[in-house]
Write a structure and sequence with these properties.
Elements: E1 33-36, E2 39-44, E3 49-51, H1 53-72, E4 78-83, H2 89-101, E5 106-111, H3 112-121, H4 129-148, H5 160-176, E6 182-187, E7 196-201, H6 202-213, H7 222-234, E8 255-258, E9 264-268, E10 276-283, E11 291-298, E12 308-316, E13 329-336, E14 342-348, H8 351-384, H9 387-403
Parallel strand pairs: 4-5
Antiparallel strand pairs: 1-2, 2-3, 6-7, 8-9, 8-11, 10-13, 11-12, 13-14
Helix pairs in contact: 1-2, 3-7, 4-5
Family: Belongs to the heat shock protein 70 family.
Transmembrane segments: 363-385
Keywords: ATP-binding, Membrane, Nucleotide-binding, Transmembrane, Transmembrane helix
Length: 404
């Protein structure tokens, strides 16, 4: 250990956190935390600089990327990263930033419980009482072949009667050994099998079942295995085992906005499937309200400020929307993609339809003016070329000619 070096541990716990949120953790850390643009960072006194959690994670991800490229013999640009289900918007953004800094381009975030469920779900699905019966049938056939056929496999296929007898004997032995230490099995001379008697102990049954029962997924690797399965699906690997796999991830916490009275208005409830997009309309709450500020929170507390603050959005209402409180509505849209990254949009309700209506009214006015002009011209022409005026004009012309 060198005094000027800083050993960084558990950088993942710092992702997307503020310095205030990590105040209680500081006493357990061998390095000093500091503030960097509102987020926690690691102080590096020897270099007179700081390191963000994203930068530290990027170093680890870059090492993993280089190792994979050395093993595969080609460059790797895409990845599936697992994150704790409780990671909020800021923490997910920090994780995406770390992956981008490491050189990854196509990045997919996957909740760790979802990844573990995928790994467990794609294991051997054949485990039931009938599978134990199959083990016992194989054991009985092996015992018969050893005694009656010199250890050679019995000629197949067995008759239907023989198969039924073996299945019934296996079921009886299994049930009996659940309460007794051993059982005697007697097979009649039927279907090409000579009469055979044997004993089976509970210990022997347990040893026969051990290869089937004593199997489990490595708890340390299950999340990584799930991420690998998701990566295989996204890359289009032609494996029959993946054909029926449908991954549906959900958001761990509700997302909503703060209302004028301070309460939390949930737009996307927790456990909603992603990707998702929800739009909700709200009334103006003041007379001649010129603008709206949308503040987004994440959590399940009824008071918005008791939840995790995510972001805010300001937009100005059009002049034709400046009316009494509740007279006009504005729409807020929250969208979350497959990575759990949030997008916020806001705008006036039915603004496009009203703009189109305004355009239509404008053209109606123009058309009205045009028609009025045409009518005036028509009246002028009728008057100018009327019969009485033409007769008067002819008479006036004749008088002038006589004077000449």
């Amino acid at each position: 250990y060198e005094p000027d070096t800083v050993t960084i541990r558990s950088a993942k716990r710092l992702m997307g956190k503020t310095l205030a949120e990590m105040a209680d953790e500081q006493k357990y850390l061998s390095y000093t935390l500091c503030d960097a643009d509102g987020h926690v960072a690691i102080d590096l006194p020897s270099k007179e600089s700081i390191a963000t959690p994203s930068e530290v994670s990027a170093i680890l991800l870059k090492y993993i990327k280089d190792t994979a490229e050395d093993k595969l013999g080609h460059q790797v640009f895409n990845c599936v990263l697992t994150v704790p289900a409780y990671f909020n918007e800021s923490q997910r953004q920090s994780t995406l930033k770390a992956a981008t800094m490491a050189g990854f381009q196509g990045i997919r975030l996957l909740n760790e419980p979802t990844a573990a469920a995928m790994a467990y779900g794609l294991g051997d699905t054949h485990l039931g009482g009938e599978d134990i019966n199959h083990l016992l049938v194989d054991f009985m056939l092996d015992s018969i072949s050893q005694e009656q056929n010199g250890g050679k496999p019995l000629p197949l296929p067995l008759t239907r009667t023989a198969i039924i007898q073996l299945q019934q004997a296996a079921e009886h032995a299994k049930v009996t050994l659940s309460t007794q230490k051993d059982v005697s099995i007697y097979l009649k001379d039927v279907g090409g099998i000579k009469a055979h008697k044997m004993k089976l102990s509970r210990a022997k049954l347990e040893s026969l079942c051990a290869p089937v029962l004593c199997t489990s997924v490595n708890a340390d690797e299950v999340v990584a295995s799930g991420a690998a399965i998701q990566a295989a699906i996204l890359s289009g690997v032609d494996k029959r085992v993946f054909q029926d796999v449908l991954m549906m991830d959900v958001i761990p916490l509700s997302i909503g906005i703060e209302m004028a009275d301070g309460r939390m208005e949930v737009l996307i409830p927790k456990n909603s499937r992603i990707p998702i997009s929800v739009t909700k309309s709200f009334d103006t709450y003041e007379d001649h309200q010129k603008g709206i500020t949308v503040e987004v929170f994440e959590g399940d507390q009824p008071v918005a400020r008791d939840n995790v603050y995510l972001t805010y959005f300001n937009f100005t209402l059009p002049r034709h929307k400046l009316g009494k409180a509740g007279e006009f509505q504005h729409a807020v849209t929250l969208s979350m993609n497959e990575n759990g990254v949030l997008q916020v949009k806001a705008g006036a309700q039915h603004e496009i339809d009203e703009n189109e209506a305004a355009v239509s009214k404008k053209w109606i006015v123009v058309l009205g003016v045009y028609m009025a002009c045409m009518a005036a011209m028509y009246v002028f022409v009728r008057v100018y070329f009327s019969t009485d005026r033409l007769a008067y004009t002819d008479q006036y012309s004749a008088v002038n000619n006589e004077d000449l």
